Amino acid sequence: MPMDSAPTAPSRQELVEHLIRTRIAGDVATSRENNLDHYRELAEGNRHFWLGLELGDRWQDPADVLKVMVERCGVVADPGHRRGQDTIDPELTVDALDRMAAVLQKAAENSSGVLVATGHPAGLFAVHRVLAEALRAAGCTVIEPAEHLYADGGEIRHMTGVAMLHRGGGLMHTHSPEPMRKILDALERDGRPLPDVVVADHGWAGYAGSQGIDTVGFADCNDPALFIGEAESTVLVSVPLDDNVSPHHYAPMTAYLLAAAGLDGRS
């Protein structure tokens, strides 16, 4: 189903079935070994896995990280499960989409300034593009970063209202918080207002949340920081999903989110 087809929003049960069928949730591609490695790295203080959040010494036990991921993402709860398949609970995905929809609806009602960004241009750009267009159509100001901003050896660019990192002729997959840091610093330097709301993923979302901006985002089961951010109320919403399936598979999910937020033009 191409993203451009603007599919009719599925029911909750239809969406759950779609998430499982496309492995956006349910039995996902990310392995248990990879998940546990990332939980351990975060607990050991590897800031690459903090995604721009400041976690201090509050999450030094990987078991505590696993507990959060069970509650908010739906990974396998058994700490003895060390290898093989891991999971995302599709019901938790839809619950989080509903929470995100409430934030987006409020942003539209308030004609908020919104910044949309992704570190997953090969996957989640398809979602972010549609959200940016819908928010703009609803009266929000979609903030575009200044020209000639650079981070991590690349240039920050925007396409159809979505900020991404460009390097070496391509758009980059990045977990880094530095692009968001550069955007927010430049807005302050130029006397432009900071966003009221950020819609993002990875370090783009984590850093925005750490700066006190209302932030909603998407995160995979091997990226625990944003779920911890939500548990600590630094991030408003973190939607659990496989963040790198074929882009067109996200179309029904995006349609559901727009309808729940009243941004689908049908309300």
UniProtKB/TrEMBL annotation:
InterPro entries the UniProt entry points to: Phosphatase_SCO2771
Name of the molecule in the record: Phosphatase
